[in-house]
Structures are given as structure tokens and as C-alpha cells.
Write a structure and sequence with these properties.
Elements: H1 2-5, H2 12-51, H3 60-74, H4 81-84, E1 85-90, E2 93-107, E3 110-123
Antiparallel strand pairs: 1-2, 2-3
Helix pairs in contact: 2-3
């Protein structure tokens, strides 16, 4: 019976394998989380056009200017607003299509890719 008791738990090699998997997942998360935070900030900025009465956005250039200011406030860099955001006016509302992808190097020629694609309908104030 002494033999069965000595085999409880993971071996040292098992713990190293678990630690390696946890470290890999944590590294991946730390690399991708800032891109998701930028996306959420852009999403919030687009939706704030409707709720921010002080901005009084009535045209497409004003919409771009408002989003650009919000990008500066939130510290979003590395993306060109004209390339990632397409804005149209239809039926007294803005149609904003946010589409872009971010790549983060993982191991040599392997990349992590986050693809963001969402369409917004924002009523004019």
C-alpha cells in the first residue's frame, strides 16, 4: 500500500509541462489584449457620436474628426483612421463600418491575428 500513496500528484516533469502551457497562454493573452482594448475604445468612440451632445456631429468629416480626437485621448496608435473606418450617411443616420486586422508575432513566422469587422448604425443628434 505504500506504493500507491507515493504516486499521488504530478511529477516534476508534469509540473514543468503545466507551467509551460500556462506561460504560453499568458504570453498570448498579454500580446493580444491591448488590441482588443483598442477595438473596444474605437467601438465606444463610434457609439459616443450619438450620445455626446457637445460634439454635435452632423457630417462625415466631423465624424472622422470626433473619432480621431477619441483615438488621441485613448492612445490608439498604429492604425490609419481612413483605412479602417468607412462612413456613409443614409436615412438621417451614419453607417460606420469598422474593419481592420492586427497581427502580433508569436514564434518566428507564426503570427497571432485579430480580425475586427463590425458595422454601426449611429443616429444623428
Amino acid at each position: 500500500m505504500k506504493f500507491a500513496r507515493s504516486q499521488k500528484g504530478l511529477s516534476m516533469l508534469g509540473w514543468v509541462a503545466v507551467l509551460a502551457v500556462v506561460a504560453f497562454l499568458a504570453s498570448t493573452g498579454f500580446k493580444m489584449f491591448p488590441h482588443y482594448m483598442d477595438y473596444w475604445a474605437l467601438e465606444k468612440a463610434i457609439m459616443s457620436v450619438e450620445t455626446d451632445k457637445a460634439a454635435d456631429v452632423r457630417s462625415v468629416p466631423e465624424f472622422y474628426a470626433h473619432i480621431s480626437k477619441m483615438m488621441q485621448v485613448n492612445g490608439i496608435r498604429g492604425v490609419d483612421l481612413k483605412d479602417i473606418l468607412e462612413i456613409k450617411i443614409e436615412n438621417n443616420e451614419f453607417r460606420a463600418h469598422l474593419k481592420y486586422e492586427r497581427r502580433e508575432a508569436l514564434i518566428e513566422n507564426l503570427d497571432l491575428v485579430a480580425n475586427f469587422d463590425k458595422e454601426f448604425r449611429v443616429r444623428m443628434p
